[in-house]
What we know:
Elements: H1 3-7, E1 21-24, E2 27-30, E3 38-43, H2 50-61, H3 63-68, E4 71-77, H4 81-95, E5 103-105, H5 110-115, E6 129-134, E7 140-146, H6 154-170, E8 184-185, H7 192-205, E9 208-210, E10 213-216, H8 220-227
Parallel strand pairs: 3-4, 4-5
Antiparallel strand pairs: 1-2, 3-6, 6-7, 8-10, 9-10
Amino acid sequence: MDYEIMMNGIVKIGQYAPEFEAMSTNGKIKLSDYKGKWVVLFSHPGDFTPVCTTEFIAFTQANEYFKNLNTQLIGLSIDSNSSHLAWLYDILQRTGVEVPFPVIADRSGEIARKYGMIASNVSTTETVRNVFIIDDKGVVRTIFIYPLNVGRWIPEIIRVIEALQTADCNKASTPANWIPGQPIIVPKPDTFSQLQERNKEIEQNKNGVSWYLSFKQSEEECTKQLENGK
């Protein structure tokens, strides 16, 4: 068996996120503490490093956006809790930015291995830049993996959460380059009679390309729920 597969968990989209309990900069936390909320669990290679510092500042500056989407940020690295605290204090002293979300001290690497955050071909001692978007039912919905030397684009993480929540509420899909407020994709017809009806709707409303690709606006109730962070 490949060493990395043996040592690292294989977390996949659609499965329940593995539970964990760990010490963090906000005290002991468990993933299940956030049941009913969406969670962005992200790993970083190390404290007092330049790219990670810019990311933590960017995540903090976007924290209100995540809160409005009923989403909790949780950071993680294999550094100690003392190191995390010293680093976050240094960020505060130098930039005035106070990191509000918990940062897990995964000293044993147990959580990192469980989630596959250590890429042994890159480093056996640092977590790469993983992002796990976990929904309010505890299911992994999206996974991003960035290399050690490239910082994350925070607006894309926010956009994906908004897209997932919009698609879920409307029982629909979002097209390429979708941003909030734009039309969403209507599910395809299941029968030939529905196909014919769909083509009539497209001809009348000019809201599609063909029976298998048509659009609509998000339902009003869904829009209200998203605006209220539900």
